[in-house]
Amino acid sequence: MTIKQQRFAQVYIELGIASEAYKRVYDCHTASANTINRKAYALLQHPKVNAMIEKLQTETRQRHQITVDDILQELEEARQTAKTQGSPSAMVSATMGKAKILGLDKVGVGVIENPMASLIAQLQGASVKVVQHISDIDDDD
Q1: For the chain, what is the largest distance between any 2 Cα atoms, rounded to a whole number of angstroms?
Q2: What sign results for the dihedral spanned by CA atoms 51, 21, 30, 4?
Q3: Are residue 55 and residue 82 in the same domain, yes or no?
Q4: Which of 12, 31, 64 is the last residue of a domain?
Q5: 79 and 133 housed in the same domain
Q6: Count of C-beta atoms within a 10 Å radius of residue 72
Q7: Last residue of some domain: 64, 88, 115?
Q8: Are 10 and 42 contained in the same domain?
Q9: Sign of dihedral through CA atoms 47, 53, 54, 59?
Q10: Are residues 10 and 60 in the same domain?
């Protein structure tokens, strides 16, 4: 692994945005956004870079003593708060965060592969309808 690849992994962990990490590490002032995105994606797929990113993520979790259960609990608390405050979009956001962590946010092309994903899709549609209904009521006033 090159020094730049190591630095890319570190900056990616810091920022969470591959294209921005690529721009900060590599000399690409004349490159198009498409080229930067493509090269950043290729680096994320590189076995050694990917392994380094996973290692850094593990170290960060251990250093902060964060577990998936901790994150899920915080998201559930946020969802309950949003529910109490009548904020369906915030509820859906917290639910989607939980689904993403658990890998339940993957939807096949045209087919929902998971019952939880189906429920989440229904909740998303319901929150949009509620927001539209509230907007319609405000327009009538």
Answers
A1: 63
A2: negative
A3: no
A4: 64
A5: yes
A6: 14
A7: 64
A8: yes
A9: positive
A10: yes
Q: What is the pLDDT of residues 23-66, one digit of tens each?
A: 999 999 899 999 999 999 999 999 999 999 999 988 887 887 87
The verdict on 8 and 57 lying in the same domain is yes
Question: DSSP letter string over the chain?
Answer: --HHHHHHHHHHHHH--HHHHHHHHS--TTS-HHHHHHHHHHHHHSHHHHHHHHHHHHHHHHHHT--HHHHHHHHHHHHHHHHHTT-HHHHHHHHHHHHHHHT-----SSS---HHHHHHHHHHHHHHHHHHHHHHHHHH-
Q: Provide the whole-model pTM.
A: 0.53
Residue 116, amino acid: M
* Both tokens assigned to 118: 């189906």
